[in-house]
Amino acid sequence: EKYLTLEGFHRFVVDRAKQDIRSVWRAILACGYDLHFERCSYSDSRYAQKTSKKWTLEMDVALVQYVNRLCRHLAITPARLHPHEVYLDPADAADPRVSCLLSVPVESLRLRFALLQSLNNTLESFFLPLVELRQTDMYTNSIAALLREAKGLIFYDTKVIVMNRVLNATAQRTADHAAPEITLDPLEIVGGDIRSSENSYFCQAARQLASVPSSQLCVKLASGGDPTFAFNIRFTGEEVHGTSGSFRHFLWQVCKELQSSMHSLLLPCPSSAANRNKGKYILTPSPITYAEEQLLHFFGQLLGIAIRADVPLPIDLLPSFWKTLVGEPLDPDSDLQEVDVITYNYIKKIENVNDESELEALCAEMTSQHLATESPDSPNKPQCKFTYLTVTGEEVELCPSGRNITVVWENKNIYASAVKNLRLQEMQNVECMTAVLAGLGSIIPLQLTTVLTPLEMELRTCGLPYINLEFLKTHTMYQVGLMETDQHIEYFWTALEMFTQEELCKFIKFACNQERIPFTCPCKDGGPDTAHVPPYPMKIAPPDVATGSPDSRYIRVETCMFMIKLPQYSSLDIMLEKLRYAIHYREDPLSG
Question: pTM score, two decimals?
């Protein structure tokens, strides 16, 4: 009689692994263990139910955020993530967002993920397509209101899938209608200096599209090698082949204009004066004219157009903007600290002073901001009045006749509260945000934003401000006989790995006329026939004419196709030199 010994079992597993390694993995998984040989499922269902009762909403939201980041790193959707792959390693301990999960047993973590995965599959397939998601403050127990409270339980990919289905279903321009076309004059911005804001690409486009019905700008999501965009761009005096490169360059140039001094729609973050949130912007909070309202409406339309085109906008707005856009209330402390840390600290000092002498010292500090006057009884004693500077630098009264009311010990808290309310009103910026929302709502259904968090809305509109080389590499095609193992192709990727993020963004701008590229692609769902989101895939091809020494040739691109025509350089140093020359030579290689 023969028995299976441990040695024999080990030999069987090794032989089996040589034939089909996945079958061994499935066998280990079926026994309830992962590849770390840690238990990934409960053997006792009663114990599983007991541990599930310990989970809180905060823990669920933290797990969803962790899974979102993990799937982004692995370039897969949560639906394809197996519970055994959810694993908190020591590197995650430093992340405060997952601190509440560190003490949770790994089997409980995976069981909870399986539950959330099943919930999201049901929401995506059956529930969300049937629900009225329109925001309303009247019915606090409506499904939309409850979903807004539980939006943290829904994976980002689930929201995007539902959102994309709705966007395709609400496309109004059919194939029978030609795309609107606008003509822009590049000579107006030669050298990067705008002679007048009215001549900027943003204003030129706003004027020409003002007479175009918004329905003609609502197209299906861009997909495939020749995507359909909301409108076509024609540049005066330039012969451009294709529409994708010029459209992407237009959006890039518009974002560059909006974040410059030529337009007053956006304002640099006041906290940047204290070396915080440098490079971030807010909507300028001031009364607007009819012309400015129209420009803000067009800005909102561009946000929606970029979402439908899947072109991430290189625009850096503070979280308070995205909070207002998705209908979330602002936090009086954290958001104020992000927007204007100087005012935030001043308010805290006013609230926490211990005696009148400290209050007088604070009033003395304000003299440098021209918000204090001298007391008529004590000419050298500074006085603060119930006035304060707006973020645009104008002095305003915090209450009726505020210039005649002195800040004293008895009313200091009222003064601090009035300053905070002034900033919160400027951050909410109702008049400007109403115009932006009206423009956005003319391109995409606003109820889609109900289930999005501010960060997710920013990701959907602006993408990530850095380039993931591994993701780019896996979404690259090699044409006309080229292979990934070719020497000059290896030089190419090695050179890109040596680039800084700033240089990588310039390379992407050179290759496809946009600084940011999507960090997700439908092809990650599997299947070779799944269409890539533009501009993917990147294509590498040999030069058109292979005459002369390759080292003397330059890199050319076809921006509409995201194609790099790469000479067969003989060394890494030459590859680096030619790439750096290419990305610094010109900003808009529309003709390659």
Answer: 0.85
